[in-house]
Write a structure and sequence with these properties.
There is one protein chain. The protein is mainly α. The protein has helices at about 1-25, 40-60, 70-85, 110-115, 130-160, 160-190, 190-220, 225-245, 255-280. The longest helix has 29 residues, at about 130-160. Mean pLDDT is about 80; it is low at about 30-35 and about 95-135.
Amino acid sequence: MTLVAIILATLAAGIGSVWLAALLMRLGLGGRADSVGPQHLLSLAAGALLATAFMHLLPEAFESQAGAHDLFATLLVGVVFFFLLDKAELWHHGHEHSHPEPAPQGHGHSHDAQHGHDHGHGHAHHHHGPRSGGWAVLTGDSVHCFGDGILIASAFMADLRLGVIAAVSVLAHEVPHHMGDLVVLRQTSTNRRMALVKVSLAGAVTALGGVVGYFLVGQLQDLLPYFLAVASSSFVYVALADLIPQLQKRLTARETIAQIAWLIAGMVIVTLVSGAAHAH
């Protein structure tokens, strides 16, 4: 039963986030200044990730027999580990969801040339080149999705409710990420459907990670609190090192309020999902 739930949840988070991203793009998300755009989704995702880590995963880990010192040490090591993966360009989402003036495509500079894909109203992107950029996106996606699957499985092994919350949080932060992936891949090919298929296949790796995580955590049940601490470190790292820095821009008072509102909305959604799952 748990394995089935993990597979369904990881498929929903991995592939569902791709299809939701494609749907939102088809509806013209971010096409108008007053519309819901990637910046709002980034705020929503950051709030969901932080709430999941601090309000659910870590409390669950600390309710075990594991010592607080060891769990905090694991959390610290986890953050450093994901930082190193980031340096290896295997974990960082690398999609700058901002609203700059459109720049000529294919001429990114400095950090943007390595990672960034600016999602302004025109969805301008910068990468090393169409072919290398496409493969880099798919490779990074696959590694990241595999890790997400293991983290979701760890949460499910602790508690079904916790697993659902983790899956929802992963889905939330993957949507704006996959929007960038789809645009980059569409630049490498005129076939939009093939771009969707490629990103969906990368998203499906989440399920593979979930199955591996199920058997891995099952064999190391005593280490489950530490798996939860590692999952928390991943969520905290992505939120603080990837998502929130993209939100640290000079905005009008109205835009700032909207940003904060969406951040809180992400936390509220996690709370509501937790309550609904607990009720069942």
